[in-house]
Amino acid sequence: MRSALLAIVLFATASTSCSATAGRSDPPTPEDFFRRPDRVQIFIADMVGPGERDETTPGNGYFVYSKEGPELSSRQRRALADIWKSPKDFVPYPERKCGFNPDIAFRFWIGKTFVDAVACFSCRMLMFRDAQGNPLPDAGFLDGFPVMQDLAKQSFPEGGFSAGW
């Protein structure tokens, strides 16, 4: 009986540890971050000028994350994964007159590294940055601003970001 129980525990441990990395590249690609992250955080985002960001405040490059929301649930992560488009499949939205005023940021984690997607709901644009603050021009796109706005409203019911258009 004890060996059967031990076999079940070992099988469950092996299957859960493998499922988190199943299908990922080494090193992870943008698709891995957006479709198969370990976890995702959401923040209220703002932009600051060069040298204005206090490095003790969460953020990335010129983006400051003034408020951290709850870590997204697996259902919420799946909703984001479902709206990711590869760079070759994405059709850009028509440009709008907006100076890219960030509203929220999603931080997609794999292990100890991350990729940020910073969203402006007014112009429906995204900026992607790696953990070192470098732009990721070929990261693809999260093509579902209503989904992202719903996640922002769930995470920050008091507001603090633009409702978009």
Structure description:
This protein is an alpha+beta fold and 165 residues long. Helices cover 27% and strands 25% of the residues. The protein has 4 helices and 8 strands. It has helices at 2-19, 30-35, 74-83, 145-155, and strands at residues 39-47, 59-60, 63-68, 84-85, 104-110, 113-120, 125-130, 141-142. It is globular, with a radius of gyration of 18 Å.
Short description:
Helices cover 27% and strands 25% of the residues.
Key terms for this structure?
disordered N terminus; six-stranded antiparallel sheet; alpha+beta; two-stranded antiparallel ribbon; 165 residues
User: In one word, what is the shape?
Assistant: globular
Structural class: alpha+beta
**Main beta sheet strand tally, sense and closure:** 6 strands, antiparallel
The residue ranges in which pLDDT falls below 50 over 5 or more consecutive positions are 1-20
C-alpha termini separation = 61 Å
Topology overview:
Elements: H1 2-19, H2 30-35, E1 39-47, E2 59-60, E3 63-68, H3 74-83, E4 84-85, E5 104-110, E6 113-120, E7 125-130, E8 141-142, H4 145-155
Antiparallel strand pairs: 1-3, 1-5, 2-3, 4-8, 5-6, 6-7
